[in-house]
Amino acid sequence: MGKTNAEWHREHRMPPKPTRQQRAAWHYEHAQHCGCRALTPSITSLLISQGYPVPQLQAPRAP
Ligand SMILES: [Zn+2]
Question: Of the candidates 59, 47, 55, which has an alpha carbon nearest to the alpha carbon of residue 20?
Answer without folding.
Answer: 47
